[in-house]
């Protein structure tokens, strides 16, 4: 049941610390005979890679993934796929001074309280560096889903709010997402965010964000009641991402204030189709924990980067008061780089649920 | 890995449909030599029981739990505890007419799409009736935690918003929660909700709600990185509850707009204590997926009751358009009865995490 | 991961003690739309039922199974099936005197050492009474496999040795198995065993046994390398049965002394078939943990009944020497009643593996 | 639930093929603050390493393990330990000719039947090469157990039979095990085996073996009824090792013919000890699936090496008859190198069970 394992049939487990020799991943349950190479995975990693512009951490990592097993002559064999990325830019000296201090908002204190020891270099295991391996696993899931479901399948992640600044949903245009450094589907908001984040960075502060991930082309029926519901596992998947503090499905928290006669999405027969048309999608594509065939909609809240250039009050290993000043290279808004990670988790959950659904219902 | 199993070391699995002969539960991993009887569990069930006032469903169930195993001479033996509640008030006729229709907002359509068959009586397995067994399992977890952690341990659930009406946090008084039919800690808001819900009920509509559950007296160190984080499992636990569409920890979605120098909770040495004082709790007691020793704070959004007395558009088993009118007895706000369920899930997650924490770190 | 859960996709968990109010079972992952009723399960239980002849325990239990969920209008719904059998003939007084003594060969001492408490009535949770629920779960698996694989599928269990007396393999005739009280496929051996066991019973002793279970009509490809191999899970399944002390596949322990050129089963092309003919079956139908399409052959060794009418040396709760004399009703050879249990475990493993195989390999 | 994961709290998962770039392992649940380095693990691997004498395969691998994570400044941190061994001596050409043939006794046919593709180089994933990673994981478990249980804890594996030649139990001397190339505790038998295996090798045949693994210093109470019994998990652990076809506990299959009054190990009070003395150990240290405090005794049967220099009948990818002649370097008796693997699996099961036992029973 390893607590470092994610998924049931399609599953992956990761290892590695921010400043150790490497990070790695074991992906299991991959369908056999799927065309796959390291070149297929690399573009997903490149989307998440640090050092690409001034709004994300300036740490430079090649992040080149190596496939160590499970692929033979260009296709998967059905056996576990081992993935490895060597850490090349570690600069331990940046972090040395905080070996004995607990940075506020970080996991320093809780790791120490739990284990009585911690790898303090760059946050060790609690660093977002681990998410590179999730993106690699998610790449495999995404490639498999495209192979199985065809071109109607698509997972799209974007940032919909940075600090207090939201996008205008009426301007949402998915084709804009890769045209700015914020994965922002609203080009006007992207401009505003640029100015806002420059300000945040200069003032030594940081900003939170809200992300949205949708999946289309997902058949009705995915999700395992009662404790393996699709939304249950999406919530777990998203909440496991570093710095995420909230998850909602469809209209989410707004549903508290929406009356019942609007909240329950109505249906009508669709011309020439077995599946009905839904007249709205407050449910975010999931009813009773099972996909309805509508677009699946998840949003997640990410707290501001905890490493900031402002002096903060804390304590050290001896329980003594200290003032902590984080140096080093950090994102003013870690939420931005969460987009490829959230997309990856979405793809992993969907493939796993698809396999579990077929296993039980596809036997006769 | 049964998809009807919740938890890893302390775990429970449930069975049963709304209108079948019984609902049941198997609770495993219970510490041995814990004093326990059916009388200890019953008060937890009574808090959730339907039929207690006009704001919750008028279905009347004795909801008397029977312990079938795992308890001998008044104490637990460490073997699985089987629990059973017979369904006594089933009135199948109320539901007969919708055997072929899919009620909007319900799981009727998705269960049919998934399994090709469904027990349409009262929602079958998708009914909130199943949550009675979670409350019973949670009662055992709560009793065990009190035994292990002592009187500083306490889980408190309440409703903090119904429809658009929020409580005033400055009036929050936990001792008020049991003084009104809404599990409301703000007596002024409780009065307003009464008027509001009477209106909702009369108009044949329904209202959503936001719940808050806190846990105090929880030691630092609970939570298993990376995919068994405490907040990950709380998110899954809460999202698995019927009609929940959002979960947040601490300041949750608000953290998107809170600047980094406020969001990261600072610490100072505490007089005469090993553990530091935190100067705020935006993190909701969890950092890096591990408890910090602060109060754990979770909120969940519950959509409005889907069964309403208003005619709704839908389709039937043949894909034909139909107008659905739900009769029967229903809560105008299902969120209210979610409080004991959310408390139960909190207790189950905490006991399970405590056991996993001790297993790894308590060996030498 | 409940330690009382067996299986991954098709799974079951059981609860209940020998002399508690009831034993029960939750079966999960059952394919939907499978015709099923309590009457379909009952014959499997009747085969295992005590009190049928003088060679098995005289405890009389109706062992009538009740289906509490997961079946609607005569077919499975895909949701968990709850099963319950009330204990009707408990006669606690028979066992009262050994509340403080540890019976040699029983689990009395180890349960006490583990939990610091035990339900001493009839062995409590360690009693073979629990296996009735496995037979019920196995009945569902067997019915599902027949539905999926058709009439070529068949699981056959029998006793091949009692005490030192083996069957003559050349006389093996499966149609004889139900013609004697020993599940013996060799009618000559059955006669000998009758005389032998009468002797054993009269002398207050007991006898061990070796059982064989075969499965035919199983497609090639079932089994999950490396830690979910088909033989791995069969070994676990059989070893989990009370009193089993050994498991072997195919030629098993004999393979130590068989030279390599005989041990490796050769193949030849089969007329008019995709799958080859194997010229022998030393491997017992499993290669590399995966079924080969040949008959699957498992044997298990069961130790003699530990409850015997001879006085034995032991200690009590205070660590003082005592002489233990077990009264009550007991089988001279518990191995005999193990046959339906071993068949049930075989069917459960096969259905679970079939579902896992299809999940990974049946997607495109 | 990854099928390539072994264990529940202390767990490991492996990846890698015989002739891929590397094999690897992720070990999770390791207790924190355990002194550990690659140098501590290496001696365990060296015991298993090929190429050491003429009775094991002449493939030469440095088998140097690299620790990639989970260890910081010489001690474990509680986070997953990533282990990697690069494959250095792959000589793919040796195997090229059998890319289209199914070697009898190997997993070639079943992998092809299951996945529709296979890495045919050296058996791919089904090669015993994977067991090197188990030995590495087992090294960590063994080191942890010594730290926790002290010097009374000891796991000892040896070969007790090769082909038809058994050791004389009266000559069993554990200190002899490392004095011969067979892990043989009987120096007289070791001499005989040398002559016998030379003969086997020259004739192009191969021999099977029986191994024994014991564990002493194990406290009473380990083992989780009903489906996580200690013997259940040992059976699974051993059966998962390549070429193993049988597992027995204590007197195992012999118990079929041992009468009840001998089979049930009697107890007497022990001077100056809380725990009783057992007067025999037919149960192999396990009663009701729970350790009794006696020595734990497991034996496993390993079939003869399937790769032999004799021509064998088989079929190819097209279902056509072929004659297969395996070239390359192979052990005349693969069983010998199974000893460090079986020891490793024993240690892993014991540590995992110890953690699960403490988790449930060590809370108050």
Notes on the protein architecture:
- Four copies of one chain form a homotetramer.
- Chain A is an alpha+beta fold.
- Chain A has seven helices and 18 strands.
- Chain A has helices at residues 38-48, 108-115, 131-149, 187-202, 230-239, 260-263, 338-361; strands spanning 5-6, 11-16, 22-28, 66-67, 71-72, 75-76, 81-86, 154-162, 165-166, 209-216, 244-249, 267-268, 277-278, 286-287, 290-291, 296-302, 312-315, 321-324.
- In chain A, the strands form six sheets. A five-stranded antiparallel β-sheet of chain A has the order 1-2-3-7-4, covered by helices on one side. Chain A has a five-stranded antiparallel β-sheet with strand order 9-8-10-16-11. In chain A, strands 5-6 form a two-stranded antiparallel sheet.
- In chain A, helix 1 packs across helix 7 (338-361), helix 3 crosses helix 7 and helix 5 (230-239) packs antiparallel against helix 7 (338-361).
- The interface between B and D is medium-sized, with 22 and 23 residues.
Main traits of this protein?
5-stranded antiparallel sheet; 364 residues; homotetramer
DSSP summary: helix tally of chain A: 7
Q: What is the 3D form of chain A?
A: globular
Which pair of chains forms the biggest interface, and how many residues does each contribute? A-B, 113 and 114 residues
**Low-pLDDT stretches of chain A:** none
Assign a percent range to the helix content of chain A.
25-40%
Widest sheet: strand ordering of chain A: 1-2-3-7-4
Distance between the termini of chain A: 30 Å
Q: Proportion of β residues of chain A?
A: 15-25%
The helix/strand series of chain A, from N terminus to C terminus, equals: EEEHEEEEHHEEHEHEHEEEEEEEH
**Overall residue-averaged pLDDT value of chain A:** 94
What multimeric state do the chains show?
Answer: homotetramer
